[in-house]
Amino acid sequence: MSEPQTTPQATAHKTGRFWTVAGVLVGLAALVIGWxxxxxxxxxxxxxxxxxRLSYIEQVDxxxxxxxxxxxxxxxxxxxxxxxxxxxxxDDMRSSAQALDHLWRTWQxxxxxxxxxxxxxxxxxxxxxxxxxSTDSVTDYLQRGLSGGAIDQAVLASELEQMTQHxxxxxxxxxxxxxxxxxxxxx
Length: 187
Fold this sequence. Notes:
Keywords: Membrane, Transmembrane, Transmembrane helix. This protein is mainly α. It has 2 domains: about 5-40; about 50-185. Helices cover about 75% and strands about 0% of the residues. The protein is rod-shaped and about 115 Å long. The N and C termini lie far apart (about 100 Å).
């Protein structure tokens, strides 16, 4: 007996049916994958949740707590009745600025839970750096006054206001992210 001959039309029909079935299967697979992606979105590009942040917040808050302990030993306010009082305040402010710089560097070395958190944390870190720079500026201005230069009270008040504003911004931004201890800095 001879084998049945396949005609070109029959071969084309089988090949077409194969590609139709394959296309339907690929389409169904794409729908299933899309459905799973919709149910479980990929967190890449999304900021972390409060639960994801807890370890990071604890690490940074621990650094802030160390600074707060140091800050409690400083006497940055009070009345200046002598040049010795001014020297003490200048030294304490300089120490405060150095501690803020150390905190800023420590904070930057701790990686946030997700890359998208950097965009949220950047303004907080910028406010911390601005607070340090304002502290340096006030310290330098007071140092010039101690060295014999006149202290313009309006300029000093403006510098202090700017330092206070940076501290306020930092506290607000730190609180928004979820920190508990860091918002106490500069208060």
